[in-house]
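Input record, target 12 of the design panel.
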């Protein structure tokens, strides 16, 4: 059964469901290996970097799962322009080729201008060579356009879950947290011309395998270029975490299951969507040692080394993430090159590593 499904050119709903439901270790390994073969065929044995700069933890939203939500009792920061440019310059000098600017969600005319200026200056300091991905939440079409014209060319906006009812259980019920607006934003990003990335959290409370199958079909329907997916990780003092802990859903057994489900999900996305970029997210590492290498071996091809300095990073804890806090934020040390080479791959230094899907879509 499994061999037949893994060799199919196009999976259907029940095939995807079957793969996500696998429990036998040997069968799971077959799935992960097959996904790796597909990655090799469409992308090669290369991992591309997006140096992550978490420019501010100020957020107007109150997503129930997130550790930097408006209601969180944390010290707020915004990195000044000069320092952001310094980090970008470091990434450029070290051949990272791409960076990602991420933050909580803020909107408004002066914010739009401020970010556009930063994008232009990053382009200037790198002779136009540094690729810029943004992950700055829901904005107007005009803002997305202004940032695109300033030089950003990829945008990440996770749908979090493609199930509207589940989405509602994870967010306050108001206009600021509208599922429909998130979809509208994904469409605007595509219309403006970005390479568009989305994704979901895997293992959310009350999420079913059928939900996850529908997520994959959602990525196909919206012709997504890039995916950023990872397991849900408990964030201290948040409503979702409270629910998870009260219902005994965060024991070591559940954490392991969530991690394996996330690996199977990445692999199945690779099997089904083939030529998209898929990130091995930091959340993978938060749940299991070598989490990101294992994601690379299951079909992911993008790494996002955190460039945010420790003094800021300690206040940018989207979820409880103690390993990476110590492991990776030793300032400006390449945390990945050796690990990538250990698994027989190369880092695509100096290359943008754009989504082949985007290039194929433009043809
Ligand atoms: N504010 C922007 C970008 C920062 S949040 C936005 O929301 O789009 C980036 C991502 O972190 C979110 O899309 C979400 O998927 C992820 N995230 C937040 N809390 C998380 C948690 N507890 N576990 C796993 N991922 C989480
Ligand atoms: Fe803000 Fe993004 Fe966290 Fe939601 S997920 S609270 S928008 S930072």
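The sequence produced for target 12 reads:
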């Amino acid at each position: 059964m499994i061999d037949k499904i893994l060799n199919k050119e196009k999976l259907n709903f029940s095939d995807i469901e079957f793969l996500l439901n696998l429990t036998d270790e040997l069968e799971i390994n077959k799935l992960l290996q097959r996904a790796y073969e597909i990655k090799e065929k469409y992308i090669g044995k290369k991992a591309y970097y997006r140096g992550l700069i978490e420019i501010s933890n100020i957020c107007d939203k109150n997503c129930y799962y997130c550790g930097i939500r408006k209601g969180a009792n944390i010290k707020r920061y915004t990195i000044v322009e000069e320092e952001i440019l310094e980090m970008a310059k470091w990434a450029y000098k070290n051949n990272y080729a791409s960076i990602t600017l991420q933050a909580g969600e803020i909107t408004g005319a002066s914010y739009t201008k401020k970010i556009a200026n930063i994008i232009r200056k990053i382009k200037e300091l790198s002779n136009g060579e540094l690729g810029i991905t943004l992950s700055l939440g829901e904005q107007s079409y005009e803002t997305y356009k202004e940032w695109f014209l300033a030089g950003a060319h990829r945008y990440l906006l996770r749908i979090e879950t493609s199930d509207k009812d589940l989405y509602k259980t994870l967010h306050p019920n108001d206009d600021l947290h509208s599922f429909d607006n998130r979809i509208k934003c994904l469409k605007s990003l595509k219309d403006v011309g970005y390479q568009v990335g989305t994704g979901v959290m895997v293992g959310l409370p009350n999420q079913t395998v059928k939900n996850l199958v529908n997520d994959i079909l959602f990525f196909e329907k919206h012709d997504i270029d890039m995916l950023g997916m990872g397991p849900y990780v408990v964030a201290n003092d948040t409503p979702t975490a409270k629910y998870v802990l009260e219902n005994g859903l965060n024991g070591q057994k559940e954490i392991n299951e969530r991690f394996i489900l996330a690996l199977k999900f990445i692999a199945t996305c690779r099997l089904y969507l083939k030529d998209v970029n898929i990130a091995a997210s930091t959340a993978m590492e938060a749940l299991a040692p070598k989490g990101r290498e294992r994601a690379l071996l299951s079909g992911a091809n993008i790494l996002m080394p955190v460039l945010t300095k420790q003094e800021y990073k300690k206040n940018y804890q989207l979820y409880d993430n103690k390993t990476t806090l110590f492991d990776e934020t030793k300032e400006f040390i390449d945390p990945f090159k050796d690990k990538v080479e250990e698994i027989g791959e190369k880092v695509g230094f100096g290359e943008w590593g754009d989504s082949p899907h985007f290039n194929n879509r433009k043809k």
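The chain is about 45% helix and 10% strand.
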